[in-house]
Amino acid sequence: MRTLKHTILIMASAAMLWLVAACADKTDIPVPEPLPATTNLVLDLRVNGTPASRAASAADRLPAGDWELIHTLRIIILAADGHVEHNGRYDLSSPAVQHTITIAVPNAEAKKIIFIANEDHFTVVDPSTDTSIGAAEYFNSLYATITATEGNTLTGDKWTTLQDIAMRTADNPVFSTDQLLHDRIPLPASAIYENVVIPRQPTYSRTFYLHRAAAKYTYRLTNNKSQASVVVNSATVNYVAPSQYLFPHITWTDNSQQTFSSYTPLSDTGTQNVYTVNLGIDDNETRDFVLYLPEGTNKIAQENIGPGILQDVPYRTGLIINADTTSPVMHDITVGDDDNLKPSKFTPMTTLPRNTNVIINGDISFRATAATLTMNYTVCEWWNYETDIPPYN
Q1: What share of the chain is helix, strand, coil (3-state, %, to 5)?
Q2: Which phi and psi angles does 149 have, rounded to 5°?
Q3: Rounded to an integer, what distance in angstroms lies between the CA atom of residue 73 and that of residue 80?
Q4: With CB atoms counted within 10 Å of each terminal CB, which end of the chain scores lower, N or C?
Q5: 136: enclosing H helix or E strand
Q6: Are 80 and 134 in contact (CB under 8 A)?
């Protein structure tokens, strides 16, 4: 299942006016006006609250980082014929819990509604030039017009091009190998909803969800009986995809886009990257850090795990501690049944969908002069899984 961040409640309201008509018998009979052809969409954007972890006390809350919230939101609405009838950008950076947006659009037809969050902080690949361009600049160029003959019409290949627009990992600082060394950058998030019919009625409501265009690795490390402080110098992760789609390429199993049966990443392979950490952990102290990665999967590389037995190479990670080596030991990330967490039941993790939080609990201990790192992994889809690690939202 997907983990989801922001909820948008759309209320469509149209004023119903009643006229009083005088008939021959002087009896007043209310006559309704025809329903209007334009509906005011009143969008309530609510940001979900962040629960404490299961083991947290009231003084130990684990709130969402500011960078995981929506700062700006672009809403693009396409008419039934595919032309852009609305393209607006809204500032949601104020601390209000709830923001209201009103949009007037023609009703009684199926719309496509596109949501793009935090566009100032990431780039996309311009299909016409194959070069990266600021997302805000690219989507702002889709001018809204009254009819299809006057402006942008996104049908056929043009609609497919928009759905397939990509983000290059190397061109987006949110995924950089030094992301822990500078201020966090608001995460990209997006969604596309098709066949949204705005009926001609006084009130219409529907809930929409945005999905982060990123996956998350949460490392929670405990310095256990080392008798000294340690420094985590770096973390190594394999299969970091070179690019990803901005919009989800997902087969949803419900209209609200909360569950899915499959997804298609842009890349099915990747590189092994080293991320600078430089995190000090005192004796008997637990500290955590987070890395954001593009979604991906491994469908190509295989390895021998026994005579004549091949398996897909799983996602792996490793740490360098106290600069004791230049080549960390890489540990498989495995996925198990939550109700039966036995090693024999675990399978290698070979997929990394967007909005997934991979939680890594590690114990660091010293024996003589050698450091021994024991790491336990849980793949946590934060919307429905309780854990002692900070939830994704």
Answers
A1: 10, 50, 45
A2: -75, -15
A3: 23
A4: N
A5: helix 135-140
A6: no
pLDDT of residue 119: 97
Q: Cβ(194)–Cβ(78) under 8 Å? A: no
Write phi, then psi, for 121 (nearest 5 degrees): -115, 15
Give one DSSP letter per residue of 171-231, joined into a string.
G-GGG-TTGGGS---PPPEEEEEEEEE--SSSEEEEEEEEEES-EEEEEEEEE-S-SS-EE
Tokens encoding 327: 């080549």
Alpha-carbon dihedral sign for residues 197, 198, 204, 208: positive
Q: How far apart are the first and last CA of the chain?
A: 15
H or E, element range at 21: strand 18-22
Q: Which residue has the tokens 């609200």?
A: 256
Here the contacts of 124-133 (C-beta below 8 Å, separation 24 or greater) are 124/165, 124/166, 124/167, 124/246, 125/165, 125/166, 125/167, 125/168, 125/243, 127/161, 127/164, 127/165, 132/168, 132/171
pTM of the full structure = 0.80
The answer to whether 133 touches 126, Cβ cutoff 8 Å, is: yes
- Structural contact between residues 210 and 117, judged by C-beta atoms closer than 8 angstroms: yes
Q: Give dist(CA 304, CA 177) in Å, integer.
A: 30
Phi, psi of 132 (to 5 degrees): -75, 140
pLDDT along the chain (393 residues), means of 10: 40 29 49 69 54 32 66 91 91 70 80 93 95 96 77 88 96 97 92 88 74 89 79 93 96 85 89 96 90 87 67 84 84 65 62 84 64 49 30 25
Q: Are the C-beta atoms of residues 115 and 210 closer than 8 Å to each other?
A: yes
Give me 251's structure tokens.
């087969």
Instruction: Tell me the backbone φ, ψ of residue 259, rounded to 5 degrees.
Output: -135, 155
- Choose among 47, 18, 39, 366: nearest CA to 225: 366
